[in-house]
Write a structure and sequence with these properties.
This protein has helices at residues 38-56, 114-122, and strands spanning 2-3, 59-71, 74-87, 93-99, 110-111, 136-146, 149-158, 167-175, 181-189, 207-214, 218-232, 235-250, 258-259, 262-263. It is 10% helix and 43% strand. The radius of gyration is 20 Å and the shape is globular. By secondary structure, the chain is mainly beta. The protein starts with a strand and ends in a 16-residue tail after the last strand. Strand 10 and strand 11 (218-232) form a beta hairpin. Residues 3-23, 254-258 and 271-279 have low confidence and may be disordered. A ten-stranded antiparallel beta sheet has the order 4-3-2-12-11-10-9-8-7-6, covered by helices on one side. It has a two-stranded antiparallel ribbon with strand order 1-5. It is built from two helices and 14 strands, in the order βαββββαβββββββββ.
Length: 279
């Protein structure tokens, strides 16, 4: 996210997130897990995340985005877009925009930038696979109840920022039954604060993404919310962002989806397990 015109700023450090309080959850138990090591948990959930990432690529869904710039309770500017993620006749993944009114975010002093659009598609629904583990420092912080789920909790941050690549930094909650991420809180990094004349600031809000179990197997992102102050050199801007992911449907072409190394049947059940986990 950037202000509506070019700015000059001083370089600031990345925001540290581990101290933020999270609502609607049980107390954090910092004790070690029983019968399994943190490293074993990391390896198990990262392998499941890799399976999930491949499976999600075989689903169609609708994604709706609303970004608001606020002054107190007054919305001064708004960006909206609704698009369907589909497959064409050749089985190629496509996006079809179904609603996109003219943005008025500039009235609130903001503009969407390339990083915002990339984050909306790739980092708000954050996935941490075994392929990406080497890029992150991962710290076990404890166990915590999230609604009816008992979760292992980890703080993660990129080991280094490589080129123009964007990363996630924050906290994840991993269900101790399915070993899948069920909640994410943090922000995308890096923010871009430059002090050279004529350059632009690009700042990004903290967000929370919740997942729900779809088809009794994988936990899919269903709702993301951000409500944050972006501290630009010219002043603070209050931003609110809501992203919904709805109507997941498995693509009907010839494709294989696996769960724990076994092909998932078309009846929507885990191999060898007929019980869905409560949402």
């Amino acid at each position: 996210m950037k202000v509506a015109k070019s700015l000059s700023t001083t370089l600031v450090a990345l925001l540290l997130l581990s101290g933020f309080a999270i609502a609607q959850e049980g107390p954090l138990d910092t004790g070690q897990p029983a019968g399994i090591t943190p490293q074993e948990i990391i390896q198990r959930f990262a392998a499941k995340e890799k399976e999930f990432k491949e499976a999600r690529d075989q689903y169609t869904y609708r994604q709706s985005v609303k970004v608001e710039a606020l002054d107190g309770d007054t919305v001064n500017g708004e960006y909206q877009q609704v698009f369907d993620v589909l497959f064409d006749d050749q089985g190629k993944r496509t996006e079809n925009v179904v609603f996109a009114p003219q943005s008025t975010l500039s009235n609130g002093g903001l503009e969407m930038d390339e990083g915002d659009f990339e984050d909306i598609r790739n980092r708000l629904p954050f996935v941490l696979t075994s392929d990406e583990l080497p890029e992150y420092d991962i710290l076990y912080v404890g166990q915590q109840q999230e609604d009816e789920l008992h979760c292992y909790v980890f703080d993660i941050a990129p080991k280094q920022i490589v080129g123009k690549k964007r990363y996630f930094q924050g906290r994840i909650w991993v269900d101790d039954h399915d070993f899948q991420i069920v909640k994410t809180f943090g922000k995308t990094v890096p923010d871009i604060n430059v002090h050279k004349k004529g350059k632009e600031e690009h700042l990004y809000p903290k967000f929370t993404t919740w997942r729900q179990q779809i088809d009794g197997k994988y936990w899919f992102p269903t709702y993301t919310r951000a409500d944050d102050e972006l501290h630009f050199s010219t002043g603070d801007v209050h931003i609110r962002e809501i992203v919904k992911y709805e109507d997941y449907k498995r693509f009907g072409a010839k494709s294989r989806i696996t769960y724990e190394g076994k092909e998932v049947p078309n009846d929507g059940q885990k191999p060898g397990n007929s019980q869905d986990k409560p949402k």
